[in-house]
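Blackboard transcription, Thursday session:
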Amino acid sequence: MRIQRLVSRSFVHFAVIAIAFLWTLPTVGVLVSSFRPENDVKNSGWWNALKHPFEESVWTFKNYADVISANGLGEAFVNTLVVTIPATILPITVAAFAAYAFAWMKFPGRDWLFAMVIGLMVVPLQVALIPILRLYTQTGIAGTFLGLWLAHTGFGLPLAIYLLYNYISQLPGDLIESAKIDGASDFTVFMRIVLPLSTPAIASFAIFQFLWIWNDLLVSLVFLGTNKVLTVKLSELTGSLGNKWHLLTAGAFVSMIVPLAVFFALQRYFVRGLLAGSVKG
Amino acid sequence: MSSQPQTSTGPRSRNTSEIVRMLLVPLALIISILVGRWSLGVMKDADAPRLLVVGVALLVGVFGIWIAYWLCNELLNLIPSETLRERIRPVIFVGPALALLIIYLVYPTVMTAYYSVLDKNSETFVGLENFKFAFTNRTIQIALRNNVYWIVGVTSFSVIGGLIMAVLFDKVRYEAVAKSMIFLPMIISFVGAGVIWRFMYASNPPGVGLLNAFIGNFDFKPVAWLINKSVNNIALIVIMIWLQTGFCLVILSAALKAIPADIIDAARVDGAGELDIFWRIIIPSLKTTILTVVTTVVIAVLKVFDIVFVMTNGNYETEVIANRMFTEFFRNQNYGLSSALTMILVIAVLPVMIINVRNARRQRG
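(Written on the board underneath:)
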């Protein structure tokens, strides 16, 4: 009995470690290769570098220097920040106001409008590409950051409203009612009470939206023209650099640094957001 | 007694602040309109210095929206009638959200449906011609077939894999670390994942791709994983499984931990084996969660575009609907066919949409 238990326990450990190892392997390969000199990358598999990890000639930063300046990933990095920060803050703001209204204000058609928001959550954003591009060309904001922020805001809103509504509508009603009786306007209640109390929900959604924008290819490809973001630039490089793996791997890592930092710093909120968002697809 | 002076200064200080507000708000309005127009000009101007564009963009994008809401609210407060004010106030709160939803999702859906029955330049009505073409054209038939492969492959492997991992990981003390390693890929862009897996599958230069090196150990010849038609779709689907399993794991693992421990302990005391517990207790308790996870993954897979775009661009019979849609739109400028393909995606998610709306309405009572 004890032996049987021991066998099954060691099987579990083996399986867990093997799965986690296999899952990480592809990323580790890219990370290792991005620090190897061009000739090494070309002539031998990346795992060979780990045989002599303490020899200095095995490692280099040159790939990063090259890819950031010569291949324009540095500029793309800045563009990505300029796209991502406002495109995260805008939908949160707009959604928080709307979620408050859906939860605590009375107006005609409220339930119908909320049903529309839920319905829009699963609409593929592909529907927007042709009509919005035409609209942008007519109004002259095609290719601007503003156009891209607004597009991301529109696409992110249904989920943002839904998540924030779930949280804001659960806040204690007494708190909001008594503030109103004391003469606070909806605006004050929202700014002073609801917003500070909703920080956890806002943080969860913010991480989501941030990662989703940072990683987006399709929307930037269609609406942003010359100011290329990391994903667009990297996808071009996969075509033009072909087999220059030392550069491609470094490029891939440049595009992943910020999401990785966000992930490790804010993992708790990230998981919480995933759980809240999955309640209803 | 003590409240007396307060009530007498109250109205007066309110009056002065009212006057200040009356002057301040229009002034702020004028300033923000001017700043708004100027910054729009800078952002549209291709020759403006980059640093200026970036600075203006960040300031406007981050603070502009808050100033806009505040201004609208203050302007509303200038209306003397309170009933009218409170009638209009919800418009300020939900108005912007609704406007954006209508412009970016409702209007485009209607327009795409309309374009899908027009010709490639959206000029003449062609009826269902685009749809007919879509279902008879060989490339698009392949794309439809591949979408089915993707949905079945990714959903079954990532959900079942996530479930098995959730159960296994639950038994070890380093669960948190192991879980992080599985859902780390979730934060990587599809493009980044594309590079990672192109490198895994690489066959040129020889010896750098891990997968080919691995099968080389067993004396197999290198395979062009992305070109060889018998494996390339699987090679692409594996990437999506790699990305999605973490999501399934996180959700299922949380639901697993919500099962009361005494139920499982009681079963164990009664002599149930681990497999019995898995099939008789865990699976039935997770039924609803599994259903939500499946729906989420199916919708994500249906729209898959980036992976195919970066890896093969739909060549060698790896086309999927979303990539075809993009090619027809961006490269071939065939707006009719492209819109018809989008509508196929919309129709596919329609049942989920209806169920979601119905559930939400029931929940609100």
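Lecturer's comment: The two ends of chain B are 50 Å apart (CA to CA).
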